[in-house]
Write a structure and sequence with these properties.
It is a single chain. By secondary structure, the protein is mainly β. The chain is 13% helix and 52% strand. The protein has one domain. The strands form 2 sheets. Strands 2, 3, 4, 8, 9, 11, 12, 13, 15 and 17 form a 10-stranded antiparallel sheet that branches. A hairpin with a 5-residue loop joins strand 11 and strand 12. The relative contact order is 0.24. The N terminus is likely disordered.
């Protein structure tokens, strides 16, 4: 009976000898979602009591070939400077948001092996307007595994008190981009190769002492009554969905965007009381490239294994 070590040794020798013959493969996954000019306007400004509590939160994480980490920043201050997480041998090539809004980015543009994410918040929705930027990008050449994600206001937001009834109008501009790209010589992408990118944005308002959300806004590109992503309010502008995804499992290059547009929603009447406004703003990118040997290499490995088995059998017969 042939020893497994003989098989492994033979296969390893052939694989090492033919390593330069491995086919090249590449992947890019990128998700960008930026919000700017975000303002909240009350129909009855006098209803808003002083003492609004703002708790900002920004989280980024990245992982490349099992090495990575996260960075979380929470503050009551208006601004959170850009927080970034990036890993991989070509980490210096990660440029947050650098690919937007062009549609010609590719492996040559992002160049190398890295996974990176960034997030930042500036300004206030209640005073002058706020801006929030997210970017998650994974680049793989020729093989590897990477993931990146960015989040804003994971579990918190604004707490405000109304002395009397008022509606609130929310308005902002958004720019968004998704890409999932896989490329390789024909027949060389392994079955585990994937590229995926997504982003999500929604707004919730809950009233203290009352169960459930009084307002839910999840823009889906449709302002039609009954089909819009709004509960407890009316959408005025919703040009495209802010909850989208794209992916690649074959050799392909899939885009969503770049897209830009103005969004607006007006809540129903909010009666007096304490409210919490929570905004979830997230981008995710992940990619895996599994390279399989070229047919010639597979044939040679097969020959080597057969030879090792034959030699072992002869030794046993002596």
């Amino acid at each position: 009976m042939m020893k497994l070590s003989n098989i492994a040794s033979a296969a390893a020798l052939v694989a090492a000898a033919l390593a330069p013959g491995l086919a090249q493969a590449d992947a890019v996954a990128q998700s960008i979602l930026n919000i700017n000019g975000f303002v909240a306007t009350l129909s009855n400004p006098a209803a808003l009591l002083p003492g609004v509590t703002v708790l900002q939160n920004a989280n980024t994480s990245a992982d490349f070939n099992g090495v990575g980490g996260s960075n979380n920043v929470g503050a009551t201050a208006v601004d959170i400077p850009r927080t970034t997480s990036v890993y991989g041998p070509n980490s210096a090539n990660y440029l947050p948001g650098g690919a937007f809004p062009g549609t010609t980015i590719g492996v040559g543009a992002v160049n190398g092996n890295f996974a990176g994410s960034s997030a930042s918040i500036t300004g206030s929705v209640l005073a002058g307007g706020a801006a929030a930027t997210l970017d998650s990008t994974v680049s793989i050449t020729p093989s590897g595994d990477g993931s990146a994600d960015s989040n804003l206001n994971l579990t918190s937001g604004f707490t405000f008190d109304l002395a009397s009834s008022s509606t609130v109008n929310f308005a902002f501009n958004a720019e968004a981009f998704l890409r999932a790209y896989l490329s390789a010589a024909p027949g060389t992408l392994g079955p585990l190769s994937t590229s995926n990118a997504s982003y999500n944005w929604d707004l919730k308002i809950t009233k203290s002492g009352v169960g459930g959300n009084q307002v839910l806004w999840s823009p889906n590109g449709d302002t039609t009554t009954g089909l819009s992503g709004t509960v407890g309010g009316v959408e005025n502008l919703d040009p495209f969905t802010l909850n989208d995804a794209t992916g690649a499992i074959f050799e392909e290059d899939n885009f969503v965007g770049p897209q830009t547009g103005a969004f607006s929603m007006t809540t129903g009447l909010l009666t007096s009381g304490r409210y919490t406004l929570t905004i979830t703003h997230k981008s995710v990118a992940d990619a895996t490239v599994q390279v399989i040997p070229e047919p010639e290499m597979l044939s040679l490995i097969g020959i080597a294994l057969f030879g090792a088995a034959f030699a072992s059998r002869r030794r046993l017969m002596k």
